[in-house]
Amino acid sequence: MMNTVHIPAGSVELDGDLALPPSSGGVVLFAHGSGSSRLSPRNTYVAGILQQRGIGTLLFDLLTREEDRDYETRFDISLLTQRLLSATAWLQDRPQTQALKLGYFGASTGAAAALRAAAEIGNQIAAVVSRGGRPDLAGELALRRVNTPTLLIVGAADYDVVELNRQAYALMHCTKALKLIPGATHLFEEEGTLEQAANAAADWFAQHLRSQGPRPAT
Fold first, then answer.
1. Domain contains 112
2. Domain Dienelactone hydrolase, which positions (predicted)?
3. pTM of the model
């Protein structure tokens, strides 16, 4: 069941959609890419696959409508990270979700925010998945500090982003994997490629959200 929620983040409130399947094995927060929103059709598709696997999802807008009109704000990784941390804290305070393990799914610039947030709060996050992400934008210091199991999914035909992901992957010391989807370009628009990415993400979250016992106390 999907519920519309409103998440306080400093002086603003962010709109979101929270879905908790029966006996959820955890909740994955989605950090969308620049120029996108919680209504991103690709992220919505991935969220549906996770829900079918019994994993809860929170899709939310990282920016208000006014903020999103500013092109530079879309690439403010520090701001995006803080918004993701605010949504994380909100979930941790809700009776429905406070005992559930949490994961991050980031796309494009959202992947950088997810990795920075995971580096900051450590074992409070059980797993991270990046799809077509820009983990390089998280910065070398954050990448070296991430200890959360992380899966980087990239379209094999998204050549520049593949190289950026390889460079970021080499800096990370956590449990990690890099998966290239054959024939896929940046937006995974080729037939069957988004499904492959979604299933890989679901497998990663199913493995790590359910294998570590209760969520660590904050």
1. yes
2. 79-203
3. 0.93
